[in-house]
Amino acid sequence: MKKIKSIGAVLTLLILVPTALFPQATSLGPPINGATTYEFNPCLNGNGRTMVFESSFGKTDLPILEISYQKAGVWSKPEELTGAFHTITTLSSNGGFFLNNHGNILLFHSKIHGGVGKYDIWMMEKNPLGSWTPPQNIGAPINSALPETDPSISPDGKFLFFTRPSTGKTPDGSPCGKLFVSEKKEKSWKPPVVMPAPINMGCECAGRMLADNKTFLFASMRDGGLGGYDIYKTTQKADGSWEEPIPYSFINTPKDDKYVFVPASGNMIYYTGADKTGNLDIMKLKIPEKLQPNKVILIQGNVKNASKNTILIPKIIVTNISTNVATNYVGAKDGSYTVSVPQDKDIYDVAIMASDAAFSFKSMLFTPTSIPKFEEKTIPAQLFPLKTNLIIPLPNIAFLNNSDTLQPYSMPEVMRLYSLLTANITTKIEIGVHTNSIKRDTIFRLGLTAKIIDTLNTTVDSAGVTLYTLKTTYSSDNTVNQAKAIVNYLIKKGIPVERIIPKGYGNSKPLNPPPADAILNKRVELKIIQQ
User: Fold this and answer.
1) What is the dihedral of CA 307, 310, 311, 315, to 10 degrees?
2) In a domain, 469, yes or no
3) Are 369 and 421 members of one domain?
4) Host domain of residue 368
5) 233 and 299 assigned to the same domain
6) Residues 68-105: pLDDT tens digits?
7) Residue 56 CB burial class (10 angstroms; 0-12, 13-18, ≥19)
8) Closest Cα to residue 182, out of 207, 159, 155?
9) pTM of the entire predicted model
10) Residue 119 and residue 117: Cα distance in Å, rounded?
11) Distances (CA, A) of 11 to 158, 205, 511
12) CATH of the domain at 20
């Protein structure tokens, strides 16, 4: 096997096993892999179409960082991340780079000037023009006098994972590490805590949370491994604990296996391999189905001000209806966003909003499928500034069996109304409920109990006597009571009654074509009556 003297210290961190041992492995080939260069330590964004990796040319001992974009299945010619970043790469240890789910934040560890300790975690962000900002030190409480390495962020942006030294030693005398995690608190990070067993067992590093926000990959040197660091997979349980880690035996080698990456599709893993001559190349390999993460729907798009066609910074809220746990995603400064919605047994409410609360929003509902599979959806959102007569559809509000009882999955949508009214204290709204069809009958029938209309009929008998009879009509139109149910809930939450007007429209304003709900033919809308 070819020995690379100029980066010999790096090779202990890389997988130097010929691809013949992995018959299903595929080299990414040119323009990513060069015939006389070494490419290693890949990291990708959620959709797998942006990749950052290290590259070494000739005998240089200063690997550079490159970035490439995939379009129509073809990778672009890699470009070096130049300028301030070149200084970083020459002073940082190899590996430990991380690209977030959206692809607009790059994390790395480095010992460049201005840090807190020997190695610190730094961040760069892509600005709306597509260039990267100067490196920013994440600072305390993440960085300390100890070395902090191998950073990563969970796809929901809520947790930061990294490595600090432990008291153990590897067989070659190098210090072992242990994995830490910190939770996001508004714009800062909480003090980090050590991740529990069975993850930390004495010598761990390079933790990565996958797109389902449950599956966690990390490198560990523990009993039962193939030698050196091996890749392990664990899954977080509902109570926050972790399942017993399973080795990724299909890719682990006797060498150190550390820096691998799995995009949101969950079926492929990217890693560093070696060609027949020993050159380092970036490879991809299909993950056995039983070792893949849970399936997700990857939603991407851009959010704009519909009135001016200008960029809005997105705020995406994904709510699990069963647990009522809401996860907030903040989009990029160029108005784009990327969100992972789990495909499991639960229903998820998704709202596309602007960080500015004075705009409309777009709501969607994702229901379970019989056979979960990875999907990628592009959903742009044109949001309007709140103004008088603006109508905002509320598609996630529905009622049980045409009653005035809200479906459980309606609550996140109702709470969005509450948030809108509390954030815009002068706004007054109308809650209008519509139906496309109304059934009536003089005989009681199932589904016609929503409303009773009594009318007084008069007739004259043969003797000239006027007779009065009460005629009862049963109707399926319950829109007035349904509108009142929404309004009453908001009033109980503290919204003044004069700021919300319920309105049942019946079928006076039918939609053409009819709404998707063919059973109830209902739609609910918010109308701004004063801003």
Assistant:
1) -10
2) no
3) no
4) 295-384
5) no
6) 999 999 999 999 886 555 555 555 556 789 999 999 99
7) buried
8) 159
9) 0.86
10) 6
11) 33, 17, 65
12) 2.120.10.30
